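Design job #97: recover the sequence.
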């Protein structure tokens, strides 16, 4: 493996540990990714001794001015060229059942490899000159890598009980790498699932987001559901699972439909929050499900109710309660609109309203809606996607013509107050809404002069008379 350790940082570390006759190894994800032929910019260095002291010596030799030291964890980190390198002393760990924070003692390399989460992450390459590049693989991690299987170095029941976050990591790696989790390891996750409750929601969501950002997130969500973890970390999503049949009429399983939508979206967008929108677009269907004789299953207003559910879900899962959440709310609220347009005659008025409501997010909304077509009927899918292309063309045409996306009405409240000599009152809002509706309906262009004349006419209907004043754009007389 010497040929893979050509980066100058390995020569610098090797020089120091050889001079001081230290056991030192590059370990973990960097080594794993060498075998997977994937690039990695994060390097973990383990030394039998002090990781902090070694980091300081390497920094001095490499002329790196800043070393971040974490004394409580016995680790140090520095950045060199394009790499981020973390140093730690070899250690062994023991756990108290009520915490995932281990009791740490100095240990050997073997002790350190035993405490690793998976065999593929326990691979180590020596950096001492005498055996530079030699692979130490006591748990057959290379075999597991070649067989694309995830196993723990030690007894999986103990591994997951000690640190339950490893259950999420196992599923995340299975999703990202498209590996299989061994049956013994999977059964240990099922057995230990309730231990996830000692993990902070921030750490859980970090792993869940990595699953969502993978090429095929459904792999992870099916494993989370199968092991019972999903019900504990995201109960609202599990409620989507299952079909119901009445009078010979069934609705689709919205759990699997949602995962199909998410998988179909991933090649077209790596926007985490659009992917969350796909996950949540039908989240209110269990709450809105009804069977109506002569019609069948309905999920009336599931988009409106779903939008209202999102702040609580985000708060419970420790997701950001900011513009990212509002974006997801908007996508969930509007996700039916382009689909309805694709089924009907596409009018300029409907397109203007969609542009007005979606604003700059209309392109993301269209990606979500196209991913939402999951019918097994190829002709139906073909027809819908063709209609969506028509909707996209109309969006472009109307936007170029009417400049409706994120438009501000050409008449503001202050101008209405000045023209009609009003104090703040409901009529001002009524006139503003009437102007907006007239523009969206195509009755008047999105221009000040046309909106001004419309305002005068609307004011007249409401019994308002303009004061004797000349507008800079349009005289009253």
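Job complete. Output follows.
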């Amino acid at each position: 493996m010497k040929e893979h350790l050509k980066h100058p940082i390995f020569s610098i570390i090797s020089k120091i540990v050889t001079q001081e006759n230290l056991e030192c190894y590059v370990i973990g994800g960097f080594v794993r990714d060498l075998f997977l032929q994937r690039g990695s910019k994060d390097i973990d260095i383990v030394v039998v001794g002090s990781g902090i002291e070694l980091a300081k010596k390497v920094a001095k030799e490499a002329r790196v001015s800043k070393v971040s030291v974490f004394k409580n964890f016995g680790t140090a980190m520095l950045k060199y060229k394009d790499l981020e390198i973390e140093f730690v002393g070899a250690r062994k760990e023991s756990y108290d059942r009520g915490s995932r924070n281990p009791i740490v003692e100095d240990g050997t390399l073997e002790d350190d490899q035993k405490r690793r989460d998976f065999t593929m992450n326990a691979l180590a390459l020596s950096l001492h000159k005498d055996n530079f590049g030699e692979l130490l693989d006591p748990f057959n991690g290379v075999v597991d890598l070649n067989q694309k299987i995830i196993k723990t170095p030690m007894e999986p029941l103990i591994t997951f009980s000690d640190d339950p976050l490893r259950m999420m990591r196992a599923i995340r790696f299975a999703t990202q790498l498209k590996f299989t989790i061994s049956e013994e390891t999977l059964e240990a996750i099922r057995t230990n699932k309730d231990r996830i409750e000692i993990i902070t929601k921030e750490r859980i969501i970090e792993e869940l987001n990595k699953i969502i950002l993978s090429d095929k997130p459904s792999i992870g969500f099916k494993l989370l559901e199968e092991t019972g973890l999903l019900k504990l970390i995201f109960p609202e999503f599990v409620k989507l699972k299952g079909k119901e049949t009445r009078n010979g009429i069934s609705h689709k399983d919205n759990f699997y439909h949602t995962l199909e939508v998410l998988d179909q979206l991933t090649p077209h967008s790596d926007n985490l929050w659009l992917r969350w929108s796909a996950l949540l677009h039908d989240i209110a269907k269990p709450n809105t499900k009804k069977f109506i004789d002569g019609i069948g299953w309905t999920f009336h207003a599931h988009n409106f109710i779903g939008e209202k559910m999102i702040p609580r879900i985000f708060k419970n899962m420790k997701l950001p309660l900011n513009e990212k959440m509002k974006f997801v709310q908007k996508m969930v609220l509007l996700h039916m609109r382009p689909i309805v347009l694709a089924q009907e005659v596409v009018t300029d008025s409907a397109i203007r309203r969609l542009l007005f409501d979606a604003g700059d997010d209309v392109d993301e909304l269209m990606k979500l809606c196209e991913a939402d077509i999951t019918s097994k009927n190829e002709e139906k899918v073909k027809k819908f996607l063709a209609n969506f292309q028509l909707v996209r063309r109309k969006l472009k045409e109307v936007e170029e013509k009417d400049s409706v996306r994120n438009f501000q009405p050409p008449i503001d409240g202050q101008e209405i107050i000045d023209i009609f000599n009003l104090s703040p009152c409901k009529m001002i809002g009524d006139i503003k809404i009437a102007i907006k509706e007239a523009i969206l309906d195509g009755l008047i262009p999105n221009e000040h002069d046309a909106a001004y004349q419309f305002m005068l006419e609307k004011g007249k209907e409401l019994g308002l008379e303009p004061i004797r004043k000349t507008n800079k754009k349009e005289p009253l007389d």
